[in-house]
Design goal:
Elements (H helix, E strand, L loop, with lengths): L1 H4 L3 H14 L2 E4 L7 E5 L1 H5 L4 E5 L2 E2 L2 E2 L2 E6 L6 E8 L2 E8 L4 E6 L9 E5 L5 E5 L7
Antiparallel strand pairs: 1-2, 3-6, 4-5, 6-9, 7-8, 7-10, 10-11
Length: 136
């Protein structure tokens, strides 16, 4: 940041804007449909906006699995997704590996997670939130 602060005011504003863009995370799904998009930077991930939803729906009368990929900040050790399923909501708790939690679940019909909970060391709740409608 000291290097940016040493620039002229006009260049400083431009450099700060570009440095924020340089920290943006993108994803690409290898499902053959070429889908992908932007997750955002550290602030968006910390706010719980690092969720990618893929799959789901019905094909030839079959319900396809819903796939969830969630990028989380350092310190999150597991994630619980609350998903509406036949017979009521079900909680799926999965481990985090390399700042990513993944879940594949059969639902009928597929739904977005109703709630997401991040757990840290010792099972301590770090964040509980209702996610925005996902991507993918």
């Amino acid at each position: 940041m000291a290097q940016i602060d040493s620039l002229s005011p006009r260049l400083r504003a431009q450099a700060r804007h570009q440095s924020l863009r340089a920290e943006t995370l993108f994803y690409f799904l290898g499902s053959g449909n070429g889908s992908g998009g932007e997750i955002g930077g550290a602030a968006q991930i910390a706010a719980g906006n690092g969720l990618v939803e893929s799959g789901g729906g019905t094909q030839a009368g079959r319900h396809l699995p819903l796939q969830l990929i969630l990028v989380v900040p350092d310190g999150v050790q597991s994630v619980a997704f609350t998903i509406a399923q036949p017979g009521g909501d079900r909680i799926h708790r999965v481990p985090v590996e390399n700042n990513v939690a993944t879940l594949q679940v059969q639902t009928a019909p597929p739904t977005n997670p109703r709630q997401i909970v991040w757990y840290g060391a010792g099972g301590r709740i770090l964040k509980r939130y209702t996610p925005a409608t996902g991507t993918g």
